[in-house]
Amino acid sequence: MRLRFNFRVYPTPGQQIELARAFGCARVVFNDGLRLRQEAREQGLPYVSDAELSKRIITLAKATPERAWLGEVSSVVLQQALADLNTAYRNFFASVSGKRRGRKVAPPRYRSRKDNRQAIRFTKNSRFKVLGNGRLRLPKIGDLAVRWSRALPSTPSSVAIIKDATGRYFASFVVQVTDELLPPVESEVGVDLGLTHFAVLSDGTKVAAPKFLRRAARKLKRLQQALARKQRGSQNRKKAVVKVARAHARVADTRRDWQHKLSTQIIRENQAVYVEDLCVTGLGRTRLAKSVHDAGWAGFTGMLEYKAARYGRAFGRVDRFFPSTRICSDCGRNNEKMALNVRTWDCPCGSHHDRDVNAARNVRAAGQADLNARGAHVRPGLVPAARNEAGTHPDAARSARSVEGISVR
């Protein structure tokens, strides 16, 4: 399995200039390649192949006075920028033809130097190296100081240097890890995700919704009001933008840290985990959109899925149209629909149900039935690297401990 580990890096002022140059060159190469293909399409010419694009945009462009400065950065950075463009085109074509599942993918767009997130990638061909003193050596940039929160399990195959909206720099390593099979346990659990409680387990455990964004609403409101009063283009406005970005980053980091702890505990304590396949995109268009996005269900279920694959647990998703709420978990009777304000109900068979606990039990039963119908659980093959597997925000762990809900052991 491939996993992605993120670590904070601290470049010197000179290294920040070199990184900014690399960000700019990668952006220009990406935009030049996109422009060339768009012009070929408008003129009715054949699609420009990947090899031809690399030759014209990088190799030949370096020999011209207009693009001679492309030679100041590592060629691997430029090649990886074109690789991102080619991947974007392939995803778009697969989405249009119906070969790609999920939401429709838009065609590639031009990158801007004003984008909140800038990134470049180095592969093994660039010969980047983690030195014995803990620094990360990158070609034509130098040795970056890294804040290691853990040791890498194996030699990384690539590293991406990311600058976020707050001005922080991160090194994101992709490494190949071996499965760490946990001792088998007897319990299996169904998870019902919600807003009143973030998660309700089939064993009756209820995890309080942290509502990180709601808790930071007052501070965000004050910072955004201060930003709105600043004159556009001024230095004070740029400073206010960074303050707002830092507040949002703190919310996101704290949420991610808390979800990692909760998902790890659920995986360790249960042999199989079943969740409902919620349509987060659709719920994000309702009046509950802010609360839905604050909950972060998609990120949490993604953590459960890849951790189950890594630690030898079973994971299943129950169809979103499965009526888990109104089916009696004791007799199996499918009752009438009920309003959201109905939190407890009685079945004609005499059973009294808590709405969420009953739904979690039905999710577990449906997941077990689906797993038995498909036969023995088959371990997945290569799992894509999960983003932000390792968080290094200095305040994330301290902030998560004060949240009500499940205790992390």
From TrEMBL:
**Keywords, alphabetical:** DNA recombination, DNA-binding, Metal-binding, Transposition, Zinc
- UniProt-listed GO biological process terms: DNA recombination; transposition
Q: Which residues form the Cas12f1-like TNB domain?
A: 297-363
Coiled-coil annotation: which residues?
A: none
Instruction: Tell me yes or no: is Zinc among this UniProt entry's keywords.
Output: yes
Where is the stretch described as Disordered? 386-409
InterPro entries registered for this protein in UniProt = Cas12f1-like_TNB (IPR010095), RNA-guided_DNA_endo/Transpos (IPR051399), Transposase (IPR001959), Transposase_put_HTH (IPR021027)
The segment(s) forming the Transposase putative helix-turn-helix domain are 1-44
One GO MF term on file is: metal ion binding
Pfam families linked: Cas12f1-like_TNB, HTH_OrfB_IS605, OrfB_IS605
**Domain called Probable transposase IS891/IS1136/IS1341: residue spans:** 173-283
Tell me its family: In the C-terminal section; belongs to the transposase 35 family. In the N-terminal section; belongs to the transposase 2 family.
Q: What is this protein called?
A: Putative transposase
